[in-house]
Amino acid sequence: MAATEDFINKLSPNFLISPDKTYATLNVPIEKSENDDREYRLIKLANELEILLIHDPNTDKSSAAMDVKIGQIHDPPNLQGLSHFCEHLLFMGSEKYPKDNEYTELVMNIWKDPWTDKELNAVDSDDNWKKYQLERSLSNQNHPFSQFGIGNIESLKEIPLKAGLDVREELIKHHKKYYSANLMKLVVLGREPLDQLNNWVVEQFSGVKNKSIPNLISIKPVKNAHNLEITFPFPDQTPLYETKPSRYISHLIGHEGEGSILSLLKKKVLIQFTKVLISQCTKFRLILPTKVKTIASIDFRFLEKGSPSGYTSGLSAYMQYPYPRELILSTPHLIRKYDAKLITEGLNFLNWNTCILTLSSKLLSGFNKKEKWFDTEYKFEPINPKFLQELQDLTLNPELKITGPNEFIPSNFEVKKIENVKPLERPFLIKDTKLSRLWYKKDDRFWVPKVEAHFLLNTPLANVTPLHSVMTGLYIDLVIDAFSDFAYDAGMAGLTYYLYDQGNGIGVSVTGYNDKAILFLDKIIQKMKNFIIGPERFLKIKEELKRTLQNRLLDSPYELAMCNTSYIINQKIWSFQERLDVLDEINYQDVQEFYPKLFKQMFFEGLVHGNIDKLEAINMIEIIENILESKELSSSQLIDNRSLLLKEGKYAYFKEVKDEKEINSAIDYYIQIGDIMDKNLRAKLSLIGQIADEPCYNQLRTQEQLDRVTGSMGFRIIIQSEKDTIYLENRIEEFFNKLQ
DSSP string of 180-236? Predict the structure, then answer.
């Protein structure tokens, strides 16, 4: 009873207590998007566990997500990674592992997990992980941020053993101490009525115990890349949820349009891209880029549904923040007030006296230190005094300026809704000529002012040889690079585009608010047709492509195994090495002369879906036809990329990895099933995939994949391990025998 009285006393006035005093309900409306047809209810159980209930009558999947505000900052110094280890063990129930030695087997198998020891060597080759852990290791050693949160055999076995600790006992103590109802946030989504969901969670979660828990350097990278990272400590922004000053600051710094920092540095060939981002632990933050007030409001107004599991997982994490409960859905998205003073105060934290400069490049040498956990080689060097003095005497560069009005911000949000219409199951053909084919489907389900338009500019010339393939790729990368100023404004206004190598041509996609989508597509195609290549930017993009291809040769074994399988079963895919072999001989004049030939003969194919009518959809593909002025391809030139049909039998292909330090092996066990157009077979394969999913993970600590390539489909299992490939192959075949 005392616990119930204490629970009642802690409640805010916005909560209404249930008659039996087992829970309380938020009795003010929860602010939600105009586009959101779901019903919400927020309750708090007597044990202080907070739960958000979501009724979605149209969902075909239910989902529940629990967030517990416990992590690596709660790890004991001599058991670093304990919280992470505990998280994994939570999924392994004693009823599922009844044998005497199964717990020991479980502990050994856990290290195969990609986050822990058996796969830690794969993590070792990830430069981002290495930089992140180095930043942590070099931070204040009295702050838990400095700890090794992932954990490995050394931190969770060898060190505690030397200290006389029983890891199992410490694990149980850790769970008993910290897994408390008042630190938990639960989100449950289902098609059941709110009252039914309410009854279920009260019954199932009221018994959870409430324990009332009070709530930067030069680096030698593995891969060939050149990076400069500037880290400024920044105050916690959670209390400033109404104004979000850091969003304005990061918008200004991270802007990519004309007059921006990135635009200026790219003109000087000093930079390829910038990132302004947040790295957070409790009460310590850096900066995150996002949209400013107007665009944030538009995006929230027309917020679309995501997957149930992603939605509940994200909301359970947001619920850990001290936002007003009725604003829990809207606060992550909206900026409610503008406060210039707070923005100025935030800018003052970007101080050269308190920042960390981190350089990462293969060109650096003289490393004299190693980080404890990943053996990352690094060194400290004083910053050049001349450079520091220059920082004190900065003057405004005339090329830097505040961006002007954004022409892509939508103003027409009219939704062309048709009442009482049965949604079509598939798009239909509205244009079919020797030059183009267009598929179209009017949005008849979501009713938002958005469109998705995907086009393939089909030309066999793009991939005839490795040389053609590389020149096509360089052209695409150069256009994307040159278009970044313009595309950034469109992106800020909710319009995105993708330009990509499709193998048998160039893919162009435009997605977002339909109001300015046609205008945006027109500008993209104009840029593609009339592009002038700058020699300096060409060298930079070529250098970047070379590093990318060289780094791909150092991918983890499982990634390389999958790539090599693709080379075998597809008719025409050029390997990383084949493309590297021809790259050096290409100059900017070669690409300038080559790319117009791509447009000489083409076949255009498109799919348009969304808040757009048939004539507007046809207008989009005609914009492409009219600007590029291509001639028709003959029918013999329209043969798509094909997959090879394997003869019955078993084939083995072995390849050594190029990274001499790589100790892992990998196997891609691929079974070709048949024709992808066979609906019956496709359905059976999907069913087999669902049946095999859980036992595959339990037995092999990996997941199966259904594989679909042009013309055929298959079933594959990919494993990476320190074990040799023969052993892994035998394990997979043993799994198949047990599955039958």
Answer: -GGGEEEEEEESS-HHHHHHHHHHHHTTS---------EE--SSS--EEEEE--B--
Centre a 10 Å sphere on the Cβ of residue 297 and count the other Cβ atoms it contains.
15
Quick one: 618 exposed, middle or buried, by C-beta within 10 A (0-12, 13-18, 19+)?
Answer: middle
Paired sense of beta strands 603-610 and 436-442, if any: parallel
Q: List all residues 6 or more positions away from 143 whose beta carbon is below 8 Å from its beta carbon.
A: none
Q: Which of 265, 233, 226 is nearest to 356 (CA)?
A: 233
Task: Tell me the two tokens of residue 622.
Answer: 């005609």
Whether residue 217 has pLDDT greater than 90: no
In sign, the C-alpha dihedral spanning 330, 336, 342, 346 is positive
The answer to which of 4-18, 370-384, 515-529 has the lowest mean pLDDT is: 370-384
DSSP 161: H
In contact, 182 and 212? CB cutoff 8 Å: yes
Distance CA 457, CA 461 (A): 11
Catalytic residue among 5, 87, 105, 543: 87
> Which residues, 6+ apart, have CB-to-CB distance to 308 below 8 Å?
56, 59, 61, 62, 63, 189
pLDDT of 162 above 70? yes
Q: Is 34 exposed, middle or buried (0-12, 13-18, 19+ CB in 10 A)?
A: exposed
Task: Indicate if 656 belongs to the active site.
Answer: no
What ranges in 557-598 are assigned the alpha helix state H?
Answer: 557-569, 576-583, 588-598
Please answer whether residues 25 and 321 qualify as being in contact, where contact means their C-beta atoms are separated by less than 8 angstroms.
no
**Phi–psi pair at 714, nearest 5 degrees:** -155, 180
pLDDT for residue 412: 93
* CA separation for the pair 114, 20 (Å, rounded): 46
Q: How far apart are CA 417 and CA 620, in angstroms?
A: 21
What is the spatial distance between Cα 378 and Cα 367, in angstroms, rounded to a whole number?
5
The rounded distance, in Å, linking the Cα atoms of 342 and 355 is 20
Lowest-confidence segment of 268-272, 283-287, 383-387 by average pLDDT: 283-287
Which residue carries 């808040």 as its tokens? 611
Q: Give the sign of the dihedral formed by CA 222, CA 227, CA 228, CA 229.
A: negative
**If we measure between CA atoms, which residue out of 470, 520, 467, 525 comes closest to residue 495?**
520
Asked if pLDDT for residue 710 goes beyond 70, the answer is: no
pTM over 0.85: no
What 703-710 contacts at long range (C-beta under 8 Å, 24+ apart), as own/partner pairs, is: 707/670, 708/676, 709/566, 709/569, 709/570, 709/643, 709/676, 710/570, 710/640, 710/641, 710/642, 710/643, 710/676
Alpha helices in 82-126 (DSSP H): 82-89, 102-110, 120-124
Q: 438 with 622: CB under 8 angstroms?
A: no
Residue scoring higher pLDDT (356 or 630) = 630
Say how far apart CA 79 and CA 681 lie, in whole Å: 51
pLDDT at 521: 98
3-state SS assignment for residue 378: strand
